Amino acid sequence: MEILPCCHLSFALAAPERLDPRIALERALEKCPLAEVEETILQSIPYSGFPAAVESLGWLRELHPEADPFPRNETSQPKRFFEQIYGDGQEKVRASLRDRHGDLERWIIEFAYGTVMESSWLSSDSIEALAVSSLIGQARLQPLHSHLRGALRTGHSRKSLTLLFESLHKVADPQVLRAAGKMLERECSSD
Question: How far apart are CA 15 and CA 137, in angstroms?
Fold first, then answer.
């Protein structure tokens, strides 16, 4: 999968004021198969919400009315994907979610990790690259740190994540990119 154009789309859906989502969608369609672009939009739902997905899927159908939606993976095991992303820190994340609101843990694990992520045919490293891009767009540093760790756990290298950061330098907040770079440096130096 040519991930960077889809990462830019994920970023745009999270930060439309920094990168026009329609432009990002058209650029992704120039470089990536339609099914990958569609899946990128679906994977954006836990980060950017339903309104961004509904709107961008509408644009996608305007551009490709003949396209059939790609079939979903129906074997959902939300705990497995959650464990892969958070590793040994998963209990701390679960406790943090419970502390914020009694329903939040269940909703995130069942919906975001179960319904959305586990039903995807994308690889876990691709899903994490999309998550990192979205969180950079939103300047959400705490979850970004968790998902940078998740990206490393799913097979990304320092180099691949640095390339992702560099590809976003024209549209992302420079302070957020610097913070992301420092987080990545700390994570990679602690190995």
Answer: 5
Residue 15 neighbours by CB distance under 10 Å: 22
Each domain of the chain, given as residue ranges in start order, spans 3-68+126-189, 77-118
Q: What's the token pair of residue 162? A: 């640095």
Type and span of the H or E element at 119: none
Contact 120, 132 (CB under 8 A): no
Its pTM surpasses 0.85: yes
- DSSP letters, 66-90, are TPPPPPPP----HHHHHHHHHGGGH
Closest CA to 163 of 31, 3, 1: 3
Place of tokens 């830019």: 8
The Cα 114–Cα 116 span in angstroms is 6
Summarised one tens digit per residue, pLDDT across range 29-83 is 999 999 999 999 999 999 999 999 999 999 999 999 888 776 666 654 556 888 8
Residue found by looking up tokens 């694990």 in the block? 109
Distance between first and last Cα of the chain? 28
Burial letters for 150-161: b for 16+ Cβ neighbours within 10 Å, e otherwise? Answer: bbbbbebeeeeb
* Residue 90 CB-half CA count within 13 A: 16
Q: Which residues contact residue 181 at a Cβ distance below 8 angstroms, ignoring those fewer than 6 apart?
A: 162, 165
